[in-house]
Amino acid sequence: MTGRADEAAAREQQPRVREILQDLWDQFDLEDKPPLEDKPGEGDLVACSLDTTAQITSWAEGAQLRVSEEENPELEAEQAELVRAWLDDNGWERIDNPAPETSPVTYHRNDDGFKVTVAPQLDARVDLDVESPCFDDQGRQVG
Q1: Coil, strand or helix: which one is 118?
Q2: Which domain holds residue 58?
C-alpha cells in the first residue's frame, strides 16, 4: 500500500458506509423525501484515537433529513424510530449512550464493527451518521 495504510483501509470502506446510509435513508417514510443522492456527500476520514501519534482511522459519512418545515417533535421521533426498528430487525446492537437519559440520540453497532448514530435534532431534522470500523497503521481492523 502506498501512503498511510490506516487511511487506505478506511477509504476502502466508503462504499459499504454509503450502502448502510442508503438502507437507513430508505426507512424514512415521507412523501417528499429527496433521494439520498441529492444530499451532498459528507464522508471523510476520522481519527479513532485522541492520541495524535496513533494512526488509527475510520471512514464516516452522514446525512440529514428535514421531516417538516416547522418543528414537529412527534413526526421527528416517528421517523427516527423507523430507522431504529430497521437496525434492531437487522441485528444491530444498541450501544450505551454517554448522554443523559433524556437524550433522543441512539448508537448502534453491527457484528462487522460499523457504527450508526440516529440523532433527532428537535427542530424537524433527523441526523444519520455511519462510521466504519477502525484500521491501524498496518491496515488491520482494530477495536
Answers
A1: strand
A2: 5-138
Whether residue 143 is contained in a domain is answered as no
Name the pLDDT band for 88 (thresholds 50, 70, 90): very high
Tally of domains within the chain: 1
Query: Is residue 126 in some structural domain?
Result: yes
**At how many degrees (to 10) do helices 73-89 and 14-25 cross?**
120
pTM greater than 0.85 (yes/no):
yes
- Judge contact between 6 and 30, C-beta under 8 A: no
- With CA atoms as reference, report the closest residue to 128 among 39, 32, 31: 39
Grid cell for residue 57? 482511522
pLDDT digits (tens, 9 = 90+) for 58-85: 999 999 999 988 988 899 999 999 999 9
